Amino acid sequence: MKTLAKLHGEKGIWMDDKPVPEVGHNDVLIKIKKTAICGTDIHIYNWDEWSQKTIPLGMTVGHEFAGEIVELGSEVAGLKIGQRVSGEGHLICGHCRNCRAGRRHLCINTKGVGVNREGAFAEYLCIPAVNVYPLPDDISDDMASVFDPFGNAVHTALSFDMVGEDVLITGAGPIGIMATAIARHAGARHVVITDVNEYRLDLARKMGAVTRAVNVATENLDDVMAELGMKEGFDVGMEMSGNGQAFQQMLERMEHGGKISLLGIPAKDTTIDWNLVIFKMLTIKGIYGREMFETWYKMTSMLQSGLDISPIITHHFKVDDYKEAFEVMASGKAGKVVLDWT
Ligand code: NAD
Ligand code: ZN
């Protein structure tokens, strides 16, 4: 089968030919229809320091996908051949303290599809049946192919009460932009997003959920707050840039008692003014992945109750044109880029 794999320890991704994976007792084989490119795939493509330490050479990459079940392991119950599915890319151990307590997203032994083991950029993907997420008919394959990052946005946004709150999102990447729509859907008052990339701020405006999309390289966030009549600060913050300065800017503009969820992955040497956290009595929560499967349930039900995040998909490519697709994604002039495998 055709796959996109990290064959060499240098910049790039390569098309490879591999055998269709063997299906274990508790596994499901999925024929892939659509995949989406994640920021993580771009790190792997660029072969940065993190990828060099993490990614085994030869591995098929990718973890955002939608497809159809074509084979079931002998022990699998509750799923059918022909069923349309997406799936959770975090594989958990099932026996650590959190797994046994039912807090599966907190598993201490989490392994990532397309990061620690064979990924989804392939004609077929084999994953444990418990990781499969069956799709209702009214969720399109396109939409399902971005459920993984959409889930990051939902997990982050629903971590704190949104109703009537003023929300600051730093970083208008695909996840930050999806978070604007979720915050609005969940009842926020002002939704302000920041970035330094005009293309992405424009895309955030097109999403139709922001009060203001602010380019912090050219505009002053304090002026925007004054204009909105915000005297004290933001109630909820979502850090979605991984940029230390953006996080510091957020801390400075939080209301006392404000709540922040951190999704963006900062550089190791990032420093902030911790006094702001203490004297403002802020609550800070780290976010990794999606809650299994509460986040997936919320994603589906919000889409079914009128949440529209479709503008986030800005590009489609046939898988054979994957090089162009990766270049577009890496350029920063894209929302989500979807690859078609059929
Ligand atoms: P992305 O890299 O596409 O978007 C980040 C955005 O932040 C970019 O548009 C960039 O221009 C912007 N930015 C840079 N400097 C800024 C500044 N000073 N102020 C405001 N914005 C600034 O990333 P994404 O795919 O949308 O993901 C968002 C973040 O979440 C990334 O850091 C990613 O690594 C991380 N992530 C975390 C998880 C998790 O489970 N914790 C999962 C997926 C992604
Ligand atoms: Zn576990």
Walk me through this protein's architecture.
- With 342 residues, the chain is an alpha/beta fold.
- The chain has two domains: 200 residues, Alpha-Beta Complex (Quinone Oxidoreductase, Chain A, domain 1), CATH 3.90.180.10; 127 residues, 3-Layer(aba) Sandwich (Rossmann fold), CATH 3.40.50.
- Helices cover 29% and strands 25% of the residues.
- It is built from twelve helices and 17 strands.
- Strands 3, 4, 5, 8, 9, 16 and 17 form a seven-stranded mixed β-sheet that branches. Strands 12-11-10-13-14-15 form a six-stranded parallel β-sheet, with helices on both faces. Strands 1-2 form a two-stranded antiparallel sheet.
- The mean pLDDT is 98.
Q: Helical content, roughly?
A: 25-40%
Head-to-tail CA distance between termini:
12 Å
- Report Rg: 20 Å
Topology order in helix (H) and strand (E) letters: EEEHHEEEHEEEHHEHEHEHEHEHEHEHE
Binding site for NAD(+): 175, 195, 200, 263-265, 287-288
InterPro entries: ADH-like_C, ADH-like_N, ADH_Zn_CS, ER, GroES-like_sf, L-Threonine_3-DHase, NAD(P)-bd_dom_sf, Zn_alcohol_dh
Keywords: Cytoplasm, Metal-binding, NAD, Oxidoreductase, Zinc
EC number: 1.1.1.103
